[in-house]
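We emphasize that the prediction below concerns an isolated chain of 123 residues; any contacts that depend on oligomerization or on bound cofactors are therefore not represented. The input was used exactly as deposited, without trimming of termini.
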Amino acid sequence: MEKYGRRKHKHLSESFKDAISGFRLALFQERNIHIQLFAAAVVIIFSLMIHVPLTDMLIIFALIGGVISLELVNTAVERLVDLVTKERHPMAKAAKDTAAAAVWWFSVMAAVIYFFIVYNTLH
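Result of the prediction step, given as a C-alpha cell string:
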C-alpha cells in the first residue's frame, strides 16, 4: 500500500454535491432515466392502491433503487467509452452492450419479483 501513496479525499459535502450533480446530469440528458422513474412512480402508486405489505414495499424500493443505480452506471460506462473512442469498435460496443444488459437483466428480475409480490398481495 505504501508504494501507491495516500489518497486525498474530498470533504463529504463535496462528494454529495458531485453525486447529486451526476444524478441531475443523467436526469436531464438520459431518456431511460425518465422511463424508469415514470415506471417506478406507477409501480409505487399501484402498490399503495392494492395495499402491498410494508416488507414487500421495502423490497420494491430496493428493486427500483437497483434498476436506477444500474442505469446510472450504464450511463457512466457509455460516456467513458465515448470519451475514449468515437470510432466504432467491437470492444467499445461490447462494453456498452454489456452495461445495458446489466440494466435489462436486473429489470427483468425486478419485474418477476414484482409479479410475485402483486400476486401474493391480491390472493
